[in-house]
Design a protein that fits this description.
2 domains, 7-stranded mixed β-sheet
């Protein structure tokens, strides 16, 4: 994997927390700095060259994102601060307008908090019913389980494409085909998949797709909502203010700009969106299929090596994503993470914003490895060596 964009990284740091956020390519950093240093103007409201330059760069990212996910046109792309805002925007702006008492929302127990809590609040407000798809023995969603969960009251299914815990990959195309036959909407949280696998919103027939920029080698505070245009035209803006209206008067009348600009009130994160464009360019240049294969190979290699350590428990060995959940037997997950930090190894420990995972795994906290394009097999070897040394300290000579 060509990672020249990341040559500035400290080789002594083994970063395995890409599910939380990713490191940033040099081209993204330079594009963001260039905006602030040379044309830090507002967009969509300036009649001078510097403003036009910023606007063109900002709108170029919209085109790049549309190309990345194969959207019909860039008008279906809305910029947000991240996945959390995006899901709230759709729940409050679209589904709150069309759902009625006793309608059903279908989720899973392995969803991130951002794809659970907005639905809980809407359920409380409207008297909706929340249902959860039973998972199979590998904690995955199957189409058959989904079919047995939905009823004639089900109106929307909201799922992560790849979960941030188990790391299972849902068959979105098959799920979408079945749901649309039943007249059910599909919302897809792509925060953990956008930088790891190819997404085609037309082929997969996705109604709404949401993801964050910082998990795809882009800036923090950036994100994207994709929606089918007929649905976006029915969606109410979450925030009203400058930049998103055409006009208003003293009588209380006002008109909004067309999609997507009616959803981008105020001065947006211009530098972040411009930087995000460079991250998208990098992903397109490398190719998502190549990235997917590379990370799959890393995961399989890591699983093979970790299984050689008898004191390591792996909770999602047979899932296909870029995530590994593990613990050292009888050692608290956070203690493992703190121990690994002594070697410059960064892993996540905790419940990973999925507070219902104990019902799934039977354990509250785990350590999580999530791979990115700059990880290597030699880094995995170093991780395994550190875990083996820790085992010697705790258990004696077990290797």
């Amino acid at each position: 994997m060509d990672t020249n964009e990341f040559n500035y990284l400290n080789p002594q740091i083994m970063y395995f927390d890409n599910g939380a956020t990713t490191f940033k390519p040099q081209s993204m950093i330079e594009a963001t700095a260039d905006y602030y240093a040379n044309f830090s103007t507002n967009i969509h409201r300036g009649d001078y060259d510097l403003s036009l330059k910023a606007e063109l760069a900002y709108e170029n990212t919209r085109e790049l994102v549309a190309h990345l996910i194969k959207a019909k046109n860039k008008q279906e792309i809305i910029f947000t601060s991240g996945t959390t805002e995006g899901i709230n925007m759709i729940v409050e702006g679209f589904f709150k307008q069309i759902l009625k008492e006793r309608d059903e929302i279908v989720l899973t127990l392995t969803e991130h908090a951002s794809n659970i809590l907005p639905w809980y609040r809407l359920s409380d407000e409207l008297g909706l019913t929340i249902k959860f798809i039973p998972l199979n023995e590998s904690n995955e969603v199957t189409l058959e389980a989904l079919k047995h969960t939905i009823t004639n009251k089900t109106k929307v299914v909201s799922l992560a494409h790849i979960t941030n815990t188990i790391g299972d990959i849902r068959d979105i195309k098959a799920i979408s085909e079945y749901l649309h036959e039943q007249g059910i909407y599909l919302l897809v949280d792509a925060a953990q998949s956008i930088a790891h696998t190819k997404i085609d919103v037309i082929d997969m027939d996705i109604d709404f797709l949401i993801f964050s920029g910082h998990k795809m080698y882009g800036p923090t505070g950036t994100g994207v909502v994709y929606g089918k245009m007929p649905y976006l035209k029915k969606m109410q803006p979450l925030i009203l203010g400058g930049g998103m209206n055409d006009e208003f008067d003293e009588s209380g009348d006002y008109t909004l700009k067309p999609v997507p600009y009616c959803f981008e009130a105020g001065t947006p994160n211009i530098a972040g969106v411009i930087g995000l464009g460079k991250s998208v360019e990098m992903l397109l240049k490398i190719g998502l299929l190549k990235i997917e294969g590379y990370e799959r190979d890393l995961r399989e290699y890591a699983i093979e090596k970790l299984k050689m350590l008898p004191h390591i428990v792996i909770y999602n060995e047979h899932n296909a994503g870029h995530t590994i959940l593990f613990n050292i037997k009888d050692v608290f997950a956070q203690d493992t993470a703190i121990y690994l930090n002594q070697f410059g190894i960064c892993v996540r420990a905790g419940s990973h914003c999925a507070k219902m995972m104990p019902k799934v795994l039977g354990i509250k906290n785990t350590c999580r490895i999530t791979f990115g394009i700059y990880n290597t097999k030699s880094q995995i070897d170093f991780l395994v060596k550190a875990l083996a040394q820790g085992a010697d300290d705790v258990y004696g000579d077990v290797i």
